[in-house]
Amino acid sequence: MLTVNTDNIPKELKPLSQWVAWKAQPLDNGKISKIPIDPKNGRKASSTNSKTWSTYKNALAYYNTHKANSIGGIGFVFAKNDPFCGIDLDNCYDPATDESEQNCFEILKYIDSYSEISPSNTGIKIIAKGRLPGPGRNFKSIFDQSDVEIYDNARFFTLTGKKLSLSSENIENRPEEITKLYNRLCSITDNKKPEIGNSWQGDIDSLPVAYGTKKLIREGEKRGRRSEAIMSVVNALVAADLPDTAIFTIFDTYPIGEKYREKGDTRHRWLSKHIEKARNFVTVRNDTNASKQLDFPDHVFSGIAGQYARTYGQYLESPDHFFYMAFLTIFGLAVSDQLYLNSQRKSQPRLYVTLLGESADVRKSTALDETAEFFRGFFADNNFAVCRGAASGEGVAKLMSQTPKVLIFYDELKVFVAKCNIKNSTLLAATNMLFGSNRYENYTSKDPIIIENGFVSMLAASTTDTYAGLFDPKFLDIGFNNRIFLVPGDSNKCFPVPEPIPFLKIENIYNQLRECLQLIQ
Asked: Which of 18, 138, 165, 234 has its CA 20 to 30 A from that of 278?
């Protein structure tokens, strides 16, 4: 692994606050993956989040302090507001002979700008001034075994300062050369792979997916939310019937693939598992109006619920939209006696929400428990009651005699179904009726059940397979299924011992809630 020669680092780059350190992460095949690190705190950085970048001085200091502890060097992040473009020629340089692969050598001569040897001592990086006519791309194995990557934003380059002997010391202005090189590489790739997919012509606008998915592909996602974004995009692409090769091309090329590319040589195996999971779960759309697919619109998170979801999603394993919908469910119940939705039917903002996901994978119960605890900490006056595992309509009525607002809570929705299927149970009728109104009456052989001005919402969780076969005709006939807001999710985040959420962040959300309630009152 090459050390950093600071004398040769281009002077134009040093004043910019676009620097990171990088960590060498060993892979199974003996190679390494390079993970960007924020020099300010030692946490993982993101090439799309400028808050995780720092100065050249800080990056170099962090490297010098921690280079004995797997910190391999420093890196520069290309951004939209700078004039620089980076060209990475991989597997093209032989250190024993000081020679490069012929096609790569032609690129070096053609661009004729600052060039240096990569940390592996087998690749070359070029930095020049110019903008790409299209998105940054990875042209894999375009010249025998050599890859060529070219980017002008949303990527970082490791820099060693080991300048090629014939290279310019300066970053030269090469806008026309960069445009021609990019178009030439695209032409070679298109001739090699004329058929990427039946429904895709090679640009994001032509993808038969929703606008929100295209936005995620183009812009990527911030650290802490990338896993959900990746699975959302993979699900959408699989549903659009794109072949695996097209999905790999998208993740090799666009910002959505940042986390995927960090996996190094294991990235294809890693993404293949996600694609396989999506193909087992997602139904391929054969209709011609595929752009109307129903992805969960993470990009519209807003207001207090959006801030809550992103805050808790950053520290816990559950998908952000699980926290988002759980928040809306409980908040809607809390204000249901004061607000109506803006509709002809004057519906109250109450929801019956079920979180769907694989068992022990997406932490469905975590989102439910944390959100209930969040509101329990906020409403000191017991604004609503949490009924964990309501067993009967009589039980719901008894609880509502003490407090009119009740959150029915099930870690497993199948428990609710089992309770409803008990002979002579009134639970299904009560919960079904209370969804649309605040009144329920049932005169049994024992005591009558009468609920007046009762407000109920439901939070539950279920695995996908269990939900698929959960309901019998009794539920279908009464229409209970139509009242459930299904929220599917997947997660690859892993926080076995999650850090405590800073109190100031929670208090900030509480303050916004207080202001909101004052407006309502």
From this structure: 138
Rounded to whole angstroms, the Cα distance separating 175 from 11 reads 20
What does the buried/exposed string (b/e) look like for 353-373 if buried means 16 or more CB atoms within 10 Å of the residue's CB?
A: bbbbbeeeebbbbbbbbbbbe
| CA dist., res. 270 & res. 244, Å (int) | 13
Supply 81's token pair: 């507001």
At 210 the three-state DSSP class reads: coil
CB distance 21 to 64 below 8 Å: no
238/234 Cα distance (integer angstroms): 6
User: For residue 505, which amino acid is it?
Assistant: K
Taking the whole predicted model, whether its pTM rises above 0.85 is answered as: no
For the segment 94-106, what is each residue's pLDDT rounded down to a tens digit?
887 777 788 888 9
- Of 296, 295, 328, which is closest to residue 309 (Cα–Cα)? 328
Question: Residues 392, 444: contact at Cβ < 8 Å?
Answer: no
pLDDT digits (tens, 9 = 90+) for 121-177: 889 999 999 999 888 888 877 776 678 999 999 899 999 999 998 899 999 999 999
Burial degree of 187 (CB within 10 A; 0-12, 13-18, 19+): exposed
d(CA 25, CA 34): 6
323 contacts: CB under 8 Å, gap ≥ 6? 308, 309, 312, 313, 316, 367, 370, 371
The torsion angles phi and psi of 113, rounded to 5 degrees, stand at -140, -175
Question: Using the 8-state DSSP alphabet, how is residue 173 labeled?
Answer: B
**Counts for the chain of helices (H) and strands (E), in that order:** 17, 18
13-27, 387-401, 472-486: lowest mean pLDDT where? 472-486
The residue among 76, 178, 84, 91 whose CA lies nearest residue 133 is: 178
